[in-house]
Amino acid sequence: MNHFIRNTVLISAALILFSFCSEAAMYWAPAPTHISGGGGHMNRNMAKQLMLIDGNNASASLISPKLARTPLALSEGRVAIRSTGMNNYHALVASRDGSNRHETAVRYIYMHGKPTDASPSQLMAYPKGKLEIEPAPYAREHWHFQAGSRVSFLIRFDGEPLAAANVGMTTSNGSVLTLTSDQNGMVSTLIPDDFEVVKPGRSGNRPAELMLSVLHSNGPEQYISTLSADYYVDPGHWQSTSLALMTVAGGMGLGGLIGWRVRRKKEQ
Question: What is the pTM (predicted TM-score) of this model?
Fold first, then answer.
Protein backbone atom coordinates (compact mmCIF):
# COMPACT_ATOMS: atom_id res chain seq x y z
CA MET A 1 0.00 0.00 0.00
CA ASN A 2 1.61 3.29 -1.09
CA HIS A 3 1.81 6.49 0.93
CA PHE A 4 -1.11 8.11 -0.91
CA ILE A 5 -3.46 5.23 -0.17
CA ARG A 6 -2.26 5.03 3.45
CA ASN A 7 -2.84 8.72 3.98
CA THR A 8 -6.25 8.54 2.31
CA VAL A 9 -7.30 5.76 4.69
CA LEU A 10 -6.13 7.71 7.73
CA ILE A 11 -7.73 10.95 6.58
CA SER A 12 -11.04 9.15 5.91
CA ALA A 13 -10.96 7.60 9.38
CA ALA A 14 -10.18 10.97 10.94
CA LEU A 15 -13.13 12.49 9.11
CA ILE A 16 -15.40 9.79 10.52
CA LEU A 17 -14.11 10.33 14.06
CA PHE A 18 -14.39 14.12 13.83
CA SER A 19 -17.31 14.48 11.41
CA PHE A 20 -18.78 17.25 13.53
CA CYS A 21 -15.64 19.37 13.07
CA SER A 22 -14.96 21.62 10.10
CA GLU A 23 -11.58 19.97 9.45
CA ALA A 24 -9.98 16.56 9.86
CA ALA A 25 -7.47 16.10 12.66
CA MET A 26 -3.89 16.85 11.63
CA TYR A 27 -1.25 14.17 12.13
CA TRP A 28 2.34 13.30 11.19
CA ALA A 29 3.13 10.65 8.56
CA PRO A 30 6.25 9.58 6.64
CA ALA A 31 6.79 11.74 3.58
CA PRO A 32 6.93 9.86 0.25
CA THR A 33 10.49 8.92 -0.64
CA HIS A 34 12.24 7.27 -3.56
CA ILE A 35 14.19 4.86 -1.36
CA SER A 36 13.93 1.27 -2.58
CA GLY A 37 13.85 -1.84 -0.46
CA GLY A 38 11.18 -3.96 1.18
CA GLY A 39 11.44 -2.92 4.82
CA GLY A 40 11.71 0.84 4.41
CA HIS A 41 15.02 1.02 6.28
CA MET A 42 17.11 4.15 5.82
CA ASN A 43 20.69 5.09 6.52
CA ARG A 44 20.75 6.41 10.08
CA ASN A 45 22.67 9.49 8.93
CA MET A 46 19.99 10.54 6.45
CA ALA A 47 17.45 13.21 7.35
CA LYS A 48 14.10 11.75 8.33
CA GLN A 49 11.38 13.07 6.05
CA LEU A 50 7.97 13.67 7.66
CA MET A 51 4.78 15.30 6.46
CA LEU A 52 2.05 17.02 8.45
CA ILE A 53 -1.30 15.95 7.00
CA ASP A 54 -4.13 18.53 7.18
CA GLY A 55 -1.75 20.91 8.91
CA ASN A 56 -2.50 24.24 7.24
CA ASN A 57 -1.38 27.20 9.38
CA ALA A 58 0.23 24.93 12.00
CA SER A 59 3.61 25.52 13.60
CA ALA A 60 6.14 22.73 14.20
CA SER A 61 8.97 22.08 16.62
CA LEU A 62 11.32 19.30 17.69
CA ILE A 63 11.86 18.50 21.37
CA SER A 64 15.17 16.83 22.24
CA PRO A 65 15.79 14.19 24.93
CA LYS A 66 17.06 17.08 27.08
CA LEU A 67 13.64 18.76 26.61
CA ALA A 68 15.04 21.62 24.51
CA ARG A 69 12.54 22.81 21.88
CA THR A 70 13.69 23.86 18.39
CA PRO A 71 11.27 25.52 15.93
CA LEU A 72 11.00 23.84 12.53
CA ALA A 73 10.07 25.29 9.16
CA LEU A 74 7.30 23.50 7.26
CA SER A 75 7.64 23.45 3.48
CA GLU A 76 4.31 22.39 1.97
CA GLY A 77 3.74 20.40 5.14
CA ARG A 78 7.12 18.62 4.97
CA VAL A 79 10.02 18.70 7.41
CA ALA A 80 13.46 17.10 7.19
CA ILE A 81 14.69 16.04 10.63
CA ARG A 82 18.47 15.88 10.83
CA SER A 83 20.56 14.50 13.67
CA THR A 84 20.74 16.64 16.78
CA GLY A 85 23.87 14.80 17.90
CA MET A 86 21.90 13.13 20.69
CA ASN A 87 20.97 9.49 20.94
CA ASN A 88 17.40 8.70 21.98
CA TYR A 89 13.81 9.62 21.22
CA HIS A 90 12.84 13.12 20.11
CA ALA A 91 9.29 14.50 19.89
CA LEU A 92 8.04 16.08 16.66
CA VAL A 93 5.17 18.40 17.61
CA ALA A 94 2.71 20.43 15.54
CA SER A 95 0.36 22.96 17.10
CA ARG A 96 -2.52 25.01 15.74
CA ASP A 97 -4.91 27.34 17.56
CA GLY A 98 -8.08 28.78 16.12
CA SER A 99 -11.30 30.19 17.47
CA ASN A 100 -12.18 27.89 20.39
CA ARG A 101 -10.19 25.08 18.72
CA HIS A 102 -6.75 23.87 19.84
CA GLU A 103 -4.87 21.07 18.07
CA THR A 104 -1.71 19.11 18.73
CA ALA A 105 -0.06 16.37 16.65
CA VAL A 106 2.86 14.37 18.06
CA ARG A 107 5.21 11.75 16.66
CA TYR A 108 8.26 10.28 18.40
CA ILE A 109 11.43 9.80 16.36
CA TYR A 110 14.50 7.85 17.37
CA MET A 111 17.72 9.69 16.52
CA HIS A 112 21.29 8.44 16.72
CA GLY A 113 24.16 10.34 18.29
CA LYS A 114 26.04 10.63 21.55
CA PRO A 115 24.44 8.81 24.51
CA THR A 116 22.38 10.92 26.89
CA ASP A 117 21.44 10.20 30.47
CA ALA A 118 17.85 11.29 29.77
CA SER A 119 15.12 8.69 30.12
CA PRO A 120 12.53 8.44 27.30
CA SER A 121 9.84 8.59 29.99
CA GLN A 122 10.85 12.21 30.71
CA LEU A 123 10.19 13.18 27.11
CA MET A 124 6.89 11.26 27.01
CA ALA A 125 5.66 13.02 30.17
CA TYR A 126 6.84 16.46 29.07
CA PRO A 127 3.80 18.65 28.15
CA LYS A 128 3.42 19.15 24.40
CA GLY A 129 -0.16 20.35 24.42
CA LYS A 130 -3.05 20.79 26.80
CA LEU A 131 -4.62 17.53 25.57
CA GLU A 132 -2.15 14.72 24.93
CA ILE A 133 -1.83 11.00 24.26
CA GLU A 134 1.19 9.66 26.17
CA PRO A 135 2.61 6.21 25.33
CA ALA A 136 2.82 4.14 28.50
CA PRO A 137 5.48 3.08 27.73
CA TYR A 138 6.83 3.76 24.26
CA ALA A 139 8.85 1.24 22.28
CA ARG A 140 12.55 1.20 23.11
CA GLU A 141 15.40 1.23 20.57
CA HIS A 142 15.56 -1.86 18.34
CA TRP A 143 11.98 -2.72 19.35
CA HIS A 144 8.96 -1.49 17.48
CA PHE A 145 5.22 -1.53 17.75
CA GLN A 146 4.10 -4.82 16.21
CA ALA A 147 0.79 -6.09 14.94
CA GLY A 148 -0.91 -8.24 17.57
CA SER A 149 1.03 -6.69 20.48
CA ARG A 150 -0.70 -4.94 23.37
CA VAL A 151 -0.13 -1.22 23.78
CA SER A 152 -1.25 1.25 26.45
CA PHE A 153 -1.62 5.03 26.42
CA LEU A 154 -2.35 7.69 29.01
CA ILE A 155 -4.79 10.44 28.04
CA ARG A 156 -3.93 13.71 29.80
CA PHE A 157 -5.71 17.04 29.90
CA ASP A 158 -4.03 20.00 31.57
CA GLY A 159 -1.47 17.58 33.03
CA GLU A 160 -4.04 15.30 34.68
CA PRO A 161 -5.41 11.89 33.60
CA LEU A 162 -8.62 12.26 31.58
CA ALA A 163 -11.26 9.60 32.31
CA ALA A 164 -14.04 8.55 29.90
CA ALA A 165 -12.26 10.05 26.88
CA ASN A 166 -13.20 8.62 23.50
CA VAL A 167 -10.04 7.60 21.66
CA GLY A 168 -9.92 6.48 18.05
CA MET A 169 -7.23 4.22 16.60
CA THR A 170 -6.96 3.95 12.83
CA THR A 171 -4.37 2.16 10.69
CA SER A 172 -3.21 2.65 7.13
CA ASN A 173 -4.25 -0.99 6.53
CA GLY A 174 -7.88 0.00 7.10
CA SER A 175 -8.61 -0.90 10.74
CA VAL A 176 -10.70 1.46 12.90
CA LEU A 177 -11.06 1.01 16.68
CA THR A 178 -12.87 3.11 19.28
CA LEU A 179 -11.57 3.04 22.86
CA THR A 180 -12.59 4.73 26.10
CA SER A 181 -10.10 5.74 28.78
CA ASP A 182 -10.62 4.30 32.28
CA GLN A 183 -10.77 6.25 35.54
CA ASN A 184 -6.98 6.58 35.45
CA GLY A 185 -7.01 8.00 31.92
CA MET A 186 -5.59 4.76 30.44
CA VAL A 187 -6.53 2.95 27.25
CA SER A 188 -5.12 -0.44 26.30
CA THR A 189 -5.62 -2.48 23.15
CA LEU A 190 -4.00 -4.86 20.69
CA ILE A 191 -2.52 -3.36 17.54
CA PRO A 192 -4.60 -4.83 14.69
CA ASP A 193 -2.95 -7.72 12.89
CA ASP A 194 -4.16 -6.40 9.55
CA PHE A 195 -1.33 -6.94 7.05
CA GLU A 196 -2.88 -8.63 4.02
CA VAL A 197 0.40 -9.92 2.61
CA VAL A 198 3.28 -11.12 4.79
CA LYS A 199 6.68 -12.05 3.41
CA PRO A 200 9.32 -14.04 5.30
CA GLY A 201 11.67 -11.83 7.33
CA ARG A 202 11.20 -8.32 8.67
CA SER A 203 13.15 -6.72 5.82
CA GLY A 204 10.58 -8.03 3.35
CA ASN A 205 7.70 -6.14 4.94
CA ARG A 206 7.22 -2.38 5.00
CA PRO A 207 5.77 -0.98 8.24
CA ALA A 208 2.24 0.38 8.30
CA GLU A 209 0.97 3.49 10.07
CA LEU A 210 -1.30 3.84 13.08
CA MET A 211 -2.86 7.00 14.46
CA LEU A 212 -4.57 7.63 17.77
CA SER A 213 -6.84 10.63 18.11
CA VAL A 214 -8.80 12.14 20.98
CA LEU A 215 -11.18 15.07 21.26
CA HIS A 216 -12.16 16.83 24.48
CA SER A 217 -14.44 19.81 25.08
CA ASN A 218 -13.92 22.09 28.06
CA GLY A 219 -16.73 24.62 28.01
CA PRO A 220 -16.68 26.37 24.64
CA GLU A 221 -13.07 25.31 24.03
CA GLN A 222 -12.41 22.23 21.92
CA TYR A 223 -9.13 20.29 22.05
CA ILE A 224 -7.91 17.69 19.56
CA SER A 225 -4.72 15.67 19.79
CA THR A 226 -3.20 12.92 17.65
CA LEU A 227 -0.29 10.54 18.08
CA SER A 228 1.06 8.66 15.07
CA ALA A 229 3.64 5.87 14.78
CA ASP A 230 4.66 3.03 12.52
CA TYR A 231 4.07 -0.62 13.35
CA TYR A 232 5.48 -3.82 11.92
CA VAL A 233 4.34 -7.28 10.96
CA ASP A 234 4.24 -9.79 13.82
CA PRO A 235 7.42 -11.88 13.29
CA GLY A 236 5.50 -14.87 14.60
CA HIS A 237 3.91 -15.16 11.15
CA TRP A 238 7.09 -16.23 9.40
CA GLN A 239 8.71 -17.76 12.47
CA SER A 240 5.82 -20.19 12.89
CA THR A 241 5.85 -20.89 9.15
CA SER A 242 9.58 -21.57 9.21
CA LEU A 243 9.18 -23.87 12.20
CA ALA A 244 6.40 -25.76 10.45
CA LEU A 245 8.50 -26.15 7.31
CA MET A 246 11.46 -27.35 9.35
CA THR A 247 9.22 -29.86 11.11
CA VAL A 248 7.86 -31.15 7.80
CA ALA A 249 11.34 -31.33 6.30
CA GLY A 250 12.62 -33.13 9.38
CA GLY A 251 9.76 -35.61 9.21
CA MET A 252 10.39 -36.29 5.54
CA GLY A 253 14.10 -36.76 6.19
CA LEU A 254 13.45 -39.15 9.08
CA GLY A 255 10.96 -41.08 6.96
CA GLY A 256 13.46 -41.37 4.15
CA LEU A 257 16.16 -42.62 6.52
CA ILE A 258 13.87 -45.31 7.96
CA GLY A 259 12.84 -46.39 4.44
CA TRP A 260 16.50 -46.62 3.38
CA ARG A 261 17.36 -48.81 6.38
CA VAL A 262 14.41 -51.10 5.67
CA ARG A 263 15.53 -51.53 2.05
CA ARG A 264 19.10 -52.26 3.14
CA LYS A 265 17.92 -55.01 5.49
CA LYS A 266 15.84 -56.61 2.73
CA GLU A 267 18.80 -56.56 0.36
CA GLN A 268 21.00 -58.23 2.96
Answer: 0.79
